[in-house]
Input
Amino acid sequence: MTELAHGTVIVQSGEAVLPRWWRSVDRVSIGCILALFGIGILLGFASSPPLAERTGLPPFHYVIRQAFYGGLALVVMLVVSMLSPLTIRRLGVTGFFITVAAVALLPVFGTDFGQGAVRWYSLGFAALQPSEFLKPVFVVFSAWMIAASQELGGPPGKTVSLLVTGILVGFLAMQPDFGQAALLIFAWLVLYFVAGAPMAALFALMGAVGAGGVYAYNNSEHFARRIDGFLTAEVSPNTQLAFAEEAIRNGGLFGAGLGEGSVKWTLPDAHTDFIIAVAAEEYGLALVAVIIALFAAIATRGFFRLMRERDPFIRLAGTGLLSLFALQAFINLAVAVRMLPAKGMTLPFVSYGGSSLLSTGIAVGMILAFTRTRPQGDIRDHLIAQGR
Output
């Protein structure tokens, strides 16, 4: 029954790589990703010239860099999406150990670029943030371990992956980077839940996470300052949150017009963490709604495709990666409207940032590979075949 496939797509064994990829990949999701990248470049033209002027660089310096890294990310995404799940698993696990070593060596060879957190390696021509690349390969490694634990005589993958998660969270907290640490915890909990975890165990783990948050609040001035700023009834008028809120209010339904916004001149992170404020001020709620709809379409289509997948590893890894992708977008948007505490997190494919763009390209490439239609990949086809 090897000719069976999802829906009406039939993948022939002798078909060339590119036609087979084009017939099986989610082309709508690819279109949404390209649209997000295009919006990011458009907003880059609006948000980055003030920063370039302050740093004495050509007006479109950051736009050119964003186009370069974004284009490279798209190429990486397409290449990864053509790989088989087995190849992605092997490369992901190998990349996981390499990335863990890079994160562990940050206190020795890393730099903080004057921001108080040692998160980067300075390469001279660019900066590399290994924690960005850790996220997709961590999901692949954890999904592999948890899926293996479900096999007869398999290893204690859930326990091993939990211990690894704890170690990595400790490394990230030392930088400090509590946001990335929280994302890893969230990703592991999603995988654990999808794998069929008991609710009692999930509640116990969430209680442990809450206790860890209380400990971080009492022992980290950086963490406590972010939480206190979020809980304060009134926002100081000279903070990034205040500038962002004012820009969003001024944008209205259709915005002030291209180049007419003022927040980019006062907001230091207008091209990265608060890019949505620029979108809201210059293009209004209309463009913000389009951006949200694009992210929602990618996540929804991916989850529906994964629901038909029988392979435990593919189902776990795809769900974890999609959840991280959607959560990062939600956090970025929620911070701008003060639904969450301030956190330096970019908007995938829209914000400026070389490491973020490349790691997102890798993650989305994996998502596209895991959600491709494959022969006998649908559980309903399997049940029909068994009934004949």
Observations:
- Residues 86 and 342 are 38 Å apart (CA to CA).
- The longest strand covers residues 121-122.
